Amino acid sequence: MPVLTSALDAGAEGYLRNREAQLAAVTALNEQLDLARAGGGERYARRHRERGRLLVRERIELLLDRDAPFLELSALAAWGTEFTVGASMVTGVGVVSGVECVIIAHDPTVRGGAMNPYTLRKTLRALQIAKESRLPVLNLVESGGADLPTQSELFVPAGKIFHDLTELSALGIPTIALVFGNSTAGGAYVPGMCDYAVLVDQQAKVFLGGPPLVKMATGEESGDEELGGAAMHSRTSGLSDYFAVDELDCLSIGRQIVAQLNWRKLGPGATMPADPPRYDPEELLGIASADFRVPFDPREVLARVVDGSRFGEYKADYGTSLVTGWASVHGFGVGVLANARGVLFSEEAKKAAEFILLANQSDLPLVFLQNTTGYMVGKRYEQGGIIKDGAKMINAVTNSAVPHITVNLGASFGAGNYGMSGRAYDPRFMFAWANAKLAVMGAQQLAGVLSIVGRQAAAAAGRDFDAGADADRRRVIEEQIERESHAFFVTGRLYDDGVIDPRDTRTVLGFALSAAHSNRVEGRRGFGVFRM
Fold it and tell me: How far, in Å, CA of 510 to CA of 508, rounded?
């Protein structure tokens, strides 16, 4: 396979400007990640420790294999809302007893691990990933239940948690509950609906109604332990499968359960040489343009991400605003679609559709590297059939059956987001670089469109157009769109699975591809490659 050559000049003014902007974005990202890792803050962490309990990330670290990686998901969930960054929960994919598993862990230092609307979204997304990629699930439970002031946003959709847990079990995907503390009311069904339940002595409290509620409902007097303690559930009710004497014992039992699953991946695994790229990943910081309106060559990204910088380009001289071709990442063969000049024309759309069909015939996952302002508009392009050609590309993306992994490198606007396998098209994993933006269009373009509409409306009504008021509106709208297209805002609402440092792109893609290969990797059959 051909090896990419780089024309990057690390001393050029444009490169240095891009690097400075990207480093500032990465610094801001790390600050927000530190907030998420802090949970409820030092005061509540200290109180938790004084009770003899491990913090949520300590539990995860001890559960994982020694020195095993952990791909955290939705780390900035709830960013920019009234809730704590991270949404009182840690989710991700990690290796336990040699098996890649989805981990869903409550953070009891944040309002007792209570579930808010973003916690719910985060949980459901983790369960979706487990189902699609056939990954066992480990629930590390310690939660006070629903955040009651937001119950109207939780009660109805939260039933999907129980639905998904039982569905996973029916699909033969193991679910395990390690209960370290409260698992009350609706949360009591989590260990009840998992295949395996481990409860920690003197800590786990699993009951539909706690002592105060039981007293009010029935007049019965009862204590926590006799009502829902680990000993009772292990010896009387039978809810608990394993009795853990402490947290370390609980984590050890959890690892033992996973080891005894006899779990096997169904995908082919890594089959190609996994040698590192020939170019320094550090240089990824200066490739994406600080101004999304300035295009950059995605081959420079690929040269620092794919194995050995090898890339077999497909239709290199046709539809050149979209780069397509074959490569591998950490030994996993992939097809790549990467925006080169932002706009998608008819040629790019037809090229993409054909390439996606080829990848499906070869059972190869697809990696989408987004940096698009959307499909081209204008009389010439409308008459040329941009709508039907764009529809072909979106059709191919929709019906593609191989795993998709999407990374937003710069901008993802308009229907280009759809054609490049955005969130609505269910990629197995989706990430964004720290400087990325996502919206229906750029802030200036959107404000300008509304200004034109306002001017036309004034003319149609026969009234004067207030240019001063229009300028004020444009400024407000631009500020709003800039804010709402920011990577943190987008990931805070779980429109992707996390914001990443560009230098981690290869590692993240490798981990995601490995997880996807836990399930079968099979393309859609039943049609040939049709030329367009």
Answer: 5
Q: What is the largest CA-CA distance in the chain?
A: 82
Query: Residue 296 carries which DSSP code?
Result: -
Asked if the model's pLDDT at residue 529 lies above 60, the reply is no
Helix (H) or strand (E) holding 198: strand 196-200
Closest CA to 359 of 300, 425, 405: 405
Sign of the Cα torsion 502, 503, 509, 515 reads negative
Terminal C-alpha separation, the chain: 26
Q: Name beta bridge partners: 381.
A: none
**Residue 182 to residue 202: CA distance in whole angstroms:** 11
DSSP 8-state class, residue 65 = P
CA 335 – CA 325 distance, rounded (Å): 6
Look at residues 298, 304, 285, 389 and name the one whose alpha carbon lies nearest to residue 342. 298
pTM for the full predicted model: 0.94
Per-residue pLDDT reduced to its tens digit, 150-196:
888 888 999 999 999 999 999 999 999 999 999 987 788 899 999 99
Per-residue pLDDT band at 531 (split at 50, 70, 90): low
**C-alpha distances in Å from residue 82, one per residue of 71, 106, 311, 332:** 26, 18, 45, 41
User: What is the number of residues in the chain?
Assistant: 532
A 10 A CB-CB count for 12 gives 11
CA 354 to CA 358: how far, in whole Å?
A: 6
Of the candidates 382, 395, 284, the residue with the CA atom closest to the CA atom of residue 22:
284
CA–CA separation, 97 vs 255, rounded Å? 6
Mean pLDDT computed over 475-500: 92
3-state SS, 350-398, equals HHHHHHHHHHHHCCCCEEEEEEECEECCCHHHHHCCHHHHHHHHHHHHH
Task: Specify whether the CB–CB gap between 494 and 122 falls below 8 A.
Answer: yes
The answer to whether 181 and 205 are in contact (CB under 8 A) is yes
Which residues, other chains included, contact 358 with Cβ-Cβ below 8 Å and sequence gap of 6+? 314, 335, 529
How confident is the model at residue 506, as a pLDDT?
Answer: 98
Q: Give mean pLDDT, residues 464-484.
A: 84
Give the separation between CA 10 and CA 13, rounded to whole angstroms: 9
**3 state SS of 52:** coil
Range 441-453 average pLDDT: 77
Answer yes or no: are the C-beta atoms of 321 and 344 closer than 8 Å: yes
Q: Are 69 and 95 in contact (CB under 8 A)?
A: yes
The residues facing 326 across adjacent strands are: 312, 335
What's phi and psi for 175, nearest 5 deg? -125, 135
CA dist 182 and 227 (Å) reads 12
- The 3-state secondary structure of 222-237, one letter per residue: CCHHHHHCHHHHHHHH
- What tens digit of pLDDT does each residue of 325-371 get? 999 999 999 999 999 988 999 999 999 999 999 999 999 999 999 99
